[in-house]
Amino acid sequence: MSQINTRPLIKNAMTIDVEDYFQVSAFEDHIPKSSWNTIPCRIERNMERILDLLDEKQIKATFFTLGWIAERYPQMIRRMVDDGHELASHGWGHARVTDLTPAEFKVDIIRSKTILEDIGGQTVQGYRAPSFSINNQNLWALDCLAEAGYRYSSSIYPVQHDHYGMPDAPRFAYFPRGDNGVLELPVTTVRLWGRNLPAGGGGYFRLWPYTVSKWFIQRLNGVESHAAIFYFHPWEIDVNQPRQKGISFKTRFRHYLNLHRMEKRLRALIHDFQWDRMDRIFLN
Description:
Layout: E1 11-18, H1 43-56, E2 62-65, H2 67-72, H3 74-82, E3 86-89, H4 102-120, E4 126-127, H5 140-147, E5 152-153, E6 183-184, E7 189-192, E8 195-198, H6 203-207, H7 210-222, E9 229-232, H8 249-256, H9 259-272, E10 274-276, H10 278-282
Parallel strand pairs: 1-2, 1-9, 1-10, 2-3, 4-5, 5-6
Antiparallel strand pairs: 7-8
Helix pairs in contact: 4-5
């Protein structure tokens, strides 16, 4: 890949989806939500490492947080806010929007927003749907978000994927329901070979060699002059998390691939680019 000159003044958005390893959608058929309260959480130790790393590098980020997590670990939420990070919603219990009715979705997003604001003491403006589960069939969810007082969403991923994605959606910030609706901020993709390639983190950051991810963001900053939106999960730095039995090879590969390399890659990413909160970059 050829060298691309970055524009160092462009700040990219660092985002973290705050959920524990047993709450991921890929495990939902193996770990019922009714058992969550009986499983020892590992979120606190992983979040402490992440918050310490961001503090060390003087980086502020946006934390899309489950209400279920916030209710159980309020001190962790208060540290996020005290450290200067943005607190945003990831829904209450990691229910995909595709599995909810409009009425159920409204309850979910209001409940999560309320608990996060009560604990964090700051207005929650952003929402990210679990598993990027807003698509052409449920755009009504964006209207619900606007009615509930959210200002932006990061829930539509313009890629082709077997579990999510809306590949024909815009790659950069837009208003899917008109200027009075919520602003949609898609996770970063790069347009190559006639398709959108995922370039904003998650499992792909563990799959690609770091040089590929770095080149993608350099291209976005230096050629397209756009800020990148990057995301990861606290469990992705947790090499010692319990291994799930009975899952498919695909699920095992996606979830556990290169966990041991994740923290080193994050440190390189943080060093190589400038980062800030979603609200500071995209909201007036």
